[in-house]
């Protein structure tokens, strides 16, 4: 038996200031608070909702850059040199 749950929402056609949107946002917030309060599995680093890890990875890469394997980096720098393309200061 799986310990996974799904939360499915339908985008609202109402305006952002509508009461039904406020209620929906509050319900989603309450659900996420409940989810985050659940005990984590022994081998897990926490309880996460869909997209949470991807958002954290994207934020980290926006701040620190995208990791590139050494072989790929060598290939890129070699090609840039052959084509006379200067690498950006942050990447050099």
In short:
This protein has 92 residues and is mainly α. The chain has helices at 19-36, 52-64, 70-83. The longest helix has 18 residues, at 19-36.
Characterize the structure shown.
This protein has 92 residues and is mainly alpha-helical. It has a domain of 56 residues. It contains three helices and no strands. It starts with 18 loop residues before the first helix and ends in a 9-residue tail after the last helix.
Q: Topology as H/E string? A: HHH
Number of helices: 3
Note poorly predicted spans: none
Helix content: 40-55%
Mean pLDDT: 82
Q: How far apart are the first and last residues' alpha carbons, in Å?
A: 51 Å
Gyration radius, to the nearest Å?
22 Å
Features:
elongated; 49% helix; mainly alpha; 92 residues
